[in-house]
Structures are given as C-alpha cells and as structure tokens.
Amino acid sequence: MNSVPRHIAIIMDGNGRWAEKKGLSRTAGHQQGVKRVKEIVREAKKIGVQVLTIFAFSTENWNRPKPEIEFLFSYLDRFLSEYKDELIREDIRFKTIGRKSRIRKTTLKNIQDMETLTGNHKSFLFNIALDYGGRWDILNAVSQIVSDCLSHKLSRSEIDEKIFGGYLSLREIPDPDLLIRTSGEQRISNFLLWNLAYSEIYFTKTFWPDFDAECLNQAVSAYSQRERRYGKIYE
Ligand code: IPE
Ligand code: IPE
Ligand code: MG
Fold this sequence. Notes:
- By secondary structure, the chain is α/β, with parallel strands linked by helices.
- It has helices spanning about 15-20, 25-45, 65-90, 105-120, 135-150, 160-165, 215-225, and strands at about 5-10, 50-60, 90-95, 125-130, 180, 200-205.
- The chain has one domain (about 5-135, about 175-225): Decaprenyl diphosphate synthase-like (Undecaprenyl pyrophosphate synthetase, 3-Layer(aba) Sandwich).
- The longest helix is centred in the N-terminal third of the chain and has 24 residues, at about 65-90.
- It is globular, with a radius of gyration of 18 Å.
C-alpha cells in the first residue's frame, strides 16, 4: 500500500542492555551500536529512502554518568573521521539537529566541518539528532518566532503550521514517514514531537547493536502494509 518511506527516523535504544546481557560494559554496547549505523545508512540508501534521522543523544542523556557521556562523544569523533571517505564517495549529506550548546568544542568542530564538506551532496541525507529534545525544539522555534515578530520580519497572522514547522530543526525536511524504536521500549522519549504527528511507528524488541539491514527491511515491509489515513476515511 505504501511505497518505501521517504524519511525514516530511528530511536536507537538498547545498547546498555545488549552489553549487560553479554556481561560486557555499557560502553562496549555503544561501540557495537555505532558500528550498526553505517550498515543502516547503506541499506536505507540502497532501498530508496531519502532521509534517515537517528536519535543519538537526547537533552536528557546529560543526566548519565560523565564517563559514559565522554565515551559517547569520543566515539562520535572517531565515527566521523572514519566515515568521511564513504560520505564523499556515496554523495551523502551529513547534518545534525539539536541544541548542541553543551557539546565539547572539538566534537562540535568535527561536526561542523563534516556538515560543510558534505553540504552539497544530493543522493541521501543522513541526519543525527544530538543533544536533541522535541520540547527544546518547539520552545526554540517559539522564541525565534517571537524575535521575528518583534523585529517585524514576521507578522502574527502569517503563523500557520507550515511557517511554524520552518522554525523547527527539520525545517524543510519532510516529516518522518516511519519511526523505528529498538529495544522493546514503547515511547517517544522526547524525540521529534511535532514532526512525528502522523508517522507510522514500529517497535521492535531487538537491541540496537543487533539491528541489521534485514531488521530494517522488516520494518519497511511492515510500513508498506500500513494504511495511512491522516484522519480521513478510506474504503
Ligand atoms: C541507546 O542505548 C543509546 C543512547 C541513549 C545514547 P542506551 O544506552 O539507552 O541503552 P539501554 O536503554 O540502557 O539498554
Ligand atoms: C532515547 O533513549 C534517546 C536516544 C536513543 C538517544 P533513552 O534510553 O535515553 O530513553 P529512555 O530514558 O529509556 O526513555
Ligand atoms: Mg535506553
């Protein structure tokens, strides 16, 4: 019924539990989790998806132990430097969304360099939500709208869903068609609150480090069987 989703969003969850089950440290779970990301980007691109947004670090994840946070960001640095050649070769645009004000300078620079380097790439958009929270996103949009109204760049009567959406992190990127959450948890955890309004949601018990190309295809196949109604009535 549905074709391949244009935009897939993923809440990559279960790294810690995957590791604990194997008697490993949580960081070993993150390490394995990061390895899955490239495989999922490759497969998504191969099957015709245009945008992949992955939730890598939430505004609430700062409440985790400092060593775990440090590890996650150092692993992100390594991931970016190792991924660079493939992003260029495959014409993949790299982008991040999120508050990011609390991310260390070295990592921020790596991110910005990669965004600039791949800014003109057209074949696929790989988007990472980092220090991201849906509530932050909405509040940030409201704050910018208020500023633009006060400086007469925007008038109150112009504000509709489209204009408002343009102030959010995803801006012109179409809403996710499919949201996947791994690890068995069935919640949104403050991900793209506005943009997920009509996304199809797919929950799987598989922990993120075990989520492979085959698992992605199962999710896409489930999506293709869904009937998206948007509040209307279909036969
Ligand atoms: C997801 O795995 C990665 C991040 C949230 C950074 P978790 O670290 O949340 O793993 P669990 O949920 O504790 O198993
Ligand atoms: C959601 O996972 C955030 C990311 C995957 C980055 P969490 O593990 O932080 O979510 P909760 O705490 O189980 O809701
Ligand atoms: Mg978790």
